[in-house]
Amino acid sequence: MWPELLRQSKEAGLNTVETYVFWNLHEQERGVFDFSDRLDLFHFCELAEQYGLHVILRIGPYICAETNYGGLPAWLREVPNIAIRTYNQPFMREMERWVRFLVDYIRPLLASHGGPIILAQLENEYENVASRYGAEGQRYLRWVSELGQALNLGVPLVMCVGATEGAIETMNGFYAHPMLEQHILNHPDQPGIWTEAWPGWYDTYGYPHHIRTPQDVAYGVARFIAAGGTGVNYYMWHGGTNFGREAMYLQTTSYDFNAPLNEFGQPTTKSQHLAGLHRVLHDYAGLLLEQERPQPQALGEQQWAYSYANDTHSLTFLCNDGPLPINCLLGEEKIELPAHAVLLVGDGTILYNTAEVDATHTLQRTHQPLEQAIKRIDWYAEPLPEHWPVELRSATTAPQPVEQLSLTHDRTDYCWYSTTFSTSDAEEGTLSLIGFADVAHIFVDGQFIATSPTPLIENRGSFEGSAFTQSFHLSLSAGQHEITILSCAVGLIKGDWMIDANMVEERKGLWGHARWNSTVLEGNWSMQPGLVGEQAALFAAGAALVPWQQESDEAINQALRWWRLSFNRSEATGPLTVDLNGMQKGMAWLNGHCIGRYWLTPATEEQADWQKNIIFTQDTGSPTQRYYHLPQTWLQEENTLLLFEELVAIPPQ
């Protein structure tokens, strides 16, 4: 997809693209590096150069980005005595080893060597955690800057929202013009660069889809340039898809972000509208670069004019920061300024209005179903741990539950917990898991009984808090019962604030205790990582090793089913998705490639207060994500879609 994405970006008026570097993907095992296929960073930068685009490389290695563990490899947790993103020698040794390796890899691509990379970023948004680490955090940040200087990049170093000497500090937000004055006071020798202009927002399971209007995005960008901003990067311009298990905790597989280029790389109304703004800025780039930052001319209480002019040309930004339209005078001409908008007036002519979307730029996209596309459906039952083949068992037994990541090392979402206990009488009661994350499916005596209530909370606070306790109402007969819990991780956190602790403390599964009513279950626990279907690679060659069965009511009405769907490649043009309405929660593979987690939990929560009147929500009550991307390059003439369904569901027809 890269050539077409880059072509469209250039066509829409971008002159630079920015990408993060995903340490968590490039070094999934310590010392084993992967830059193949869609991880071919060198090729991506070369392609950008071919399309006439510069590159800003955000090395991190902490990148946040709604990616698993904020872009850090999960194996860091197992480094002795490590604390992440503070002055900690074990962390700094690993970080420096990786960063030096990466810089040697990309050095020919640096502008100082004739390549396309014009800026590099180390660390990211340190201000979010600075108060937690105090003086040690600032000492770490200075070390990062010194490392950057020692790398001899030959291009400027930037740090986004939280920087130290030796790096250009850049800005984040929905709007950056309110930050510009303070930035110039703090850094009079630095340009005003807005490395994250948010054109939308990401989605998390259980919450509505987020959108932001094209007009408001254009207003934010034009307003920033008017006030003297010198560089804007859209985060995201194109977000794409979180394939595999690459999304952070709760993040949807789609990373559409309501970005100008949608998840499938298609242009949108937003990209078309912004392209018009970019054209004007390019046409007047010389004027904008040659002139000093202008002083604003007041046109009203919340209205301003910024004028850039030389002997032959002028560009004036008429800015209305207020919520209502207003009439103002430009010279002797009366002009109506729309609410919350910027007019760009070039040489006396209105060239662009951020509030007005040209009818020819409006794009509508819908999903068109392919009738009778699925040719065959069959299934295989994932067994409970006691029925696993002996050769696949690797259970750990202990008097207390063992935290999941210490067993799975984040190589799977799944871990089984089993124990037994007795009740003297038939009774109704509450099974409570105290110290648990993320989703629990409860089986009693081999029967699926309950699952975690939704929605889960993105920022859960302390491990001792209520967000890490889950309760299930059960009816039990008298006698001994086996309680089996399938613990399902839904991605690792992206930052400390999500658990109110250093990232190394991230936990999954059951690490506390389980209680039946007020009685702690004290019997031995058995813990078994993963699934039989994962270990047997049912999504690949292992599919030939198990007895698949034809669809039946028995399969539909039971949890823990592997569904195998066969379909031929469509002759239809455009992106292909699978509609998973009717499924509940699990993982999906296309021809052996994991396309990500799916979860059809309904969107029931409202948006955060700080986003109101900027970000709007859609489809409350519907699944957060219903359609899942099937990339064209992973399709064959005959295709297999494999779904592991954790709960009771009806597969696509």
From TrEMBL:
GO biological process, one term: carbohydrate metabolic process
Recorded catalytic activity of this chain's protein: Hydrolysis of terminal non-reducing beta-D-galactose residues in beta-D-galactosides
Keyword Repressor: no
Enzyme Commission number(s) of this protein: 3.2.1.23
Residues of the Beta-galactosidase galactose-binding domain: 561-638
PROSITE patterns: GLYCOSYL_HYDROL_F35
Domain Glycoside hydrolase 35 catalytic residue range list: 1-279
One term of GO molecular function: beta-galactosidase activity
Pfam families to which the protein is assigned, alphabetical: BetaGal_gal-bd (PF21467), Glyco_hydro_35 (PF01301)
Keywords linked to the UniProt accession: Glycosidase, Hydrolase, Signal
InterPro entries with a match to the protein in the record: BetaGal_gal-bd, Galactose-bd-like_sf, GH, Gly_Hdrlase_35_cat, Glyco_hydro_35_CS, Glycoside_Hdrlase_35
Stated family: Belongs to the glycosyl hydrolase 35 family.
Descriptive protein name: Beta-galactosidase
Species in which this protein is naturally found: Dictyobacter kobayashii
